[in-house]
Fold this protein.
Amino acid sequence: MALTEDRTFTAPAPEAVPGAPPTDRLVVGPGRWVSNWQPEEPRFWNGPGRPAARQNLYWSVFCEFLGFAVWQLWSVTVVFLPAAGFDLSTSQQFWLVSLPPLVGAVLRVPYSFTVALFGGRNWTVISALLLLVPTVALAVALSTPHTPVWVLFAVAATAGFGGGNFASSMANITFFFPAQEKGAALGLNAAGGNIGVAVAQFAVPLAVTVLAIGTFGPALPMAGLVWIPLILIAAWGAHRYMHNLSHARNDLKGSLSALREPHLWLIALIYIGTFGSFMGFGSVFPTLISIMFPAFSGLELWGAVISMAFLGPLVGSLARPLGGRLADRRGGATVTLACFLAMAAVTAGVVLTLPWQNFWLYLGLFLALFTLTGIANGSSYRMIPLVFRLTVRADDPVGHERKSSAALGLIGAVGGFGGFMIPQVLRASHSAHGSFDAAFWALAAAYLVLAAFTYLVYRRPGSMLARAHV
């Protein structure tokens, strides 16, 4: 019987190429600038790359979470203004909740270029500290009910600083991860930010009621003051633990060239209906409840007031990663198309059931609507890298990956305008007819139009994009 010697062959590590950047460590210069970031290099990614990328992601999520929370402060604070002595019409209340989404959407455009200009870590610190402006201003403005309405409008507009954070955060994080992990990282970054809306709508009512010690009404300044310690921690953490990437700073050309891609604007139109609906309904849901079902605008629990409105943004935020996963399996356009059709049906259901005056049915329909917007957010956003890979010419000097990275922030900027449009459509309907029926019917029709648009551009049988299951 022959004996067989068992030998294990271990391949020698490849020799370093002279002049090539090191793969076993980060080369970090002054200001925490990393000059050898190589996420597509396996040795680098499995060595120092992955832990550093995750560290940057976690702090980015925290900063973006606070951005969304500050962005939506007025959506829930405005409900408490009448009880605190502020004399506001319904139209003025709707303007207060729609100004932050408008300013935030506008700011997302310049914020999309800030990573290339200043560095991701540097801008994260700056954008976090900018959140002190709307929080401190809110605390001062709401300290007395005699504050003029125009001042309230100006202070509410500054909350748009929080909305701009999304564009810079997404543009920054996409550089840290290899292609096969970008989707998961961006999904976590976006979902972590979106959930700030729900947390703000849950925490602000608690802050203004539980902390109203020795006052005769809600302590409205606390709606802004409670966020200041968290903002300072976020800015410190970003300064201490995040990195700037040298190659990302030089990508302004990629950001500008992406604006010339037709599909940036086509997907942005879809994103107005998905993310814009999430932000729009998130902004206005507390006000809708206070008008339609005032007995349920705040539920008292152990001396604290809790708003049921936070449940909508919560389920929408949690559903966003599901949309990305469904898009991976079924195609982003298919999932988005199905969501638009379902959103039209649910919105019509809201109108048809309003005469019943059943709050729990009303809440259930809105939770379904928020869930659909969350799924559609994830699925429509997941379309961007694949669409750009298929439509950007192979000989394009910028390349599809850099254009796709820039488009992530720019499409988010355009989509943010939906957060302004929906409250304004509802305001116009209420001003003209004394009800919201016309607005909901208009939104249901808009979702059907967006469904048809998605089908014709991205799911039309025989087209290149449909064959690729975009």
About this structure: The beta strands are 28-29, 33-34, 244-245, 299-301, 304-306. The chain is about 70% helix and 5% strand. The CA atoms of residues 393 and 399 lie 8 Å apart. Residues 1-16 have pLDDT under 50 and may be disordered.
